[in-house]
Amino acid sequence: MTSTLLLIDDEDNILRSLKRLFRREPYRVLTARSGPEALDLLRHEDVSVILSDQRMPGMTGSELLKQVKTTHPQTIRLIMSGYTELESVTSAINDGAVFKFLVKPWEDDKLIEHIREAFDIHEFLVQKERQRLTLKAQNRSLDFDLRYQKEESDLYLQGMKLAQSILEHVPVMILGLDDQGTLVSANAVARQQLPNDAVIGLPMDMALPGPLVEKLNTLLSDRPTGGPDGQFNMNYQDEPFRFWYSRFKGPGNAQGLILVGCPDIE
């Protein structure tokens, strides 16, 4: 079954440009010119990925995607707008309604990569759900196994919460970046070091100082060859810092960089 991309924008010329951009990609492309029209399409279309403009009459993109998060939680939701609209979508990003914020005007190659990544993540979620349903059917008559799975899941969630709590309290800054250079994680110390308007989901060049961004761009560009993990020293916020970095690989094709930093007291 062909996967489907839904493009939403109130400007016809933008929709035409986006359709041309994705015409060689292996998925079906649908369009809508408003939030209500998109919601109507979603009632009878199976959509894997949504790319919506933010500023539209009647219903903004973030308002639309908050509804879609409730009605179609497995659909991967991206929003695209100018830098000036970032503040208006921050709440949706923090609520998990928006997977990624993309900036207009877009770069064709990067936008195609973002959409491919979104389809990879959607496929991963669909496969996980299929596995869950298959497992549930196989064990429908085995009450003990179901109870055991719930206990195991609870323990896993507790472990995840504990791990997150530990990261929050580690007295050094810890940042996570995906392979596109988007800020995906920051512990308490890191958030204190970031600008006040920096939020998860921002490109790193909007959230981090320029010299650090240049270094991280170099490290991320090494990913095709694997590149070793390592460390480097540089001034950060007018203070000598030592940074350690390590690459990670997540679900689907998701990959990126974990960065740990602390003042260099030597």
TrEMBL record:
Alphabetized Pfam families for the sequence: Response_reg
Signal sequence residues: none
Residues annotated as domain Response regulatory: 4-119
PROSITE patterns reported for this sequence: RESPONSE_REGULATORY
GO biological process: phosphorelay signal transduction system
Transmembrane domains' residue ranges: none
InterPro entries per the UniProt record, alphabetical: Bact_response_regulator (IPR050595), CheY-like_superfamily (IPR011006), PAS-like_dom_sf (IPR035965), Sig_transdc_resp-reg_receiver (IPR001789)
Database matches in SUPFAM superfamilies: CheY-like, PYP-like sensor domain (PAS domain)
Species: Saccharospirillum salsuginis
Keywords associated with the record: Phosphoprotein
Name of the featured protein: Response regulatory domain-containing protein
Residues the record lists as 4-aspartylphosphate modifications: 53
